[in-house]
Design goal:
Helix 1 packs across helix 6. The protein has a two-stranded antiparallel ribbon with strand order 1-2. It has a two-stranded parallel ribbon with strand order 3-4. Helix 7 links the parallel strand 3 and strand 4. By secondary structure, the protein is mainly alpha-helical. The protein is built from ten helices and four strands.
Length: 215
């Protein structure tokens, strides 16, 4: 078998097993975390900001296909509309790498601050992984406006499935702004493999416990 054929076969094998473990680990995680879903539901239902359990936002996925990402709701209802209708807040949001500092974001609830700091708000993304929109390991899925940050490298960025855990998250997350973030995410695209994925998962788990760059 020539070198080109070997590389193609390894790539297909990698994608097959990556998807297998995505499904397996997602099912296990959703079962194990089912009590968390119930607890957050009750806290949302009877807390100071009643509303839906999940926050859904359109992100750009594999080969540019949009999908709705799921998170536990950490903001007030209609948070996106409030942001879009406030030019000053939106400009600050874009200038700050498509985020607002927690202490100056009036949309985040009291419960939401804890959910974000602990990364518990990310747990529902196992639904996205099970559905095939995301993988456990991959570049962080971004909103459409962020695609401009990748310039002529956007196709490369979209050539792999986005992930719940990735090199950017394990390297500092929100502490690494654009344009450095692009280089980090594209480094994953270049190095994606079983061993690299395993190393990233381990680093992400450590970062979650340390709450590095989480807000």
């Amino acid at each position: 078998m020539n070198e080109k054929g070997t590389i193609k076969q390894q790539s297909m094998m990698y994608l097959f097993w990556k998807r297998f473990f995505d499904i397996l680990l997602s099912v296990i995680a959703l079962i194990c975390f089912s009590p968390v879903f119930l607890i957050i539901f009750v806290m949302n239902r009877f807390g100071d900001n009643k509303g839906p359990l999940f926050y859904k936002q359109e992100r750009i996925g594999w080969h540019g296909k949009p999908f709705k990402i799921y998170k536990f709701r950490s903001m007030i209802v209609n948070a996106d509309t409030i942001l879009e209708n406030d030019p000053e807040m939106y400009a600050k949001y874009v200038a700050n790498n498509y985020k607002l500092e927690p202490e100056e974001d009036p949309r985040i609830t009291h419960l939401g601050r804890w959910l974000r700091k602990s990364s518990v708000d990310e747990i529902p993304q196992f639904i996205n992984i099970l559905a095939g929109d995301m993988s456990i390991i991959g570049p962080r899925p971004i909103v459409k406006a962020e695609l401009a940050e990748y310039g002529n490298r956007v196709d490369k960025f979209l050539s792999v499935k986005p992930g719940a855990m990735g090199l950017w998250q394990s390297s500092g997350r929100s502490n690494i702004p654009y344009p450095e973030r692009c280089d980090v995410e594209l480094e994953y695209v270049d190095k994606a493999s079983f061993t690299f994925d395993a190393a990233i998962m381990f680093k992400n788990i450590i970062s979650i416990f340390k709450s590095e760059g989480a807000y």
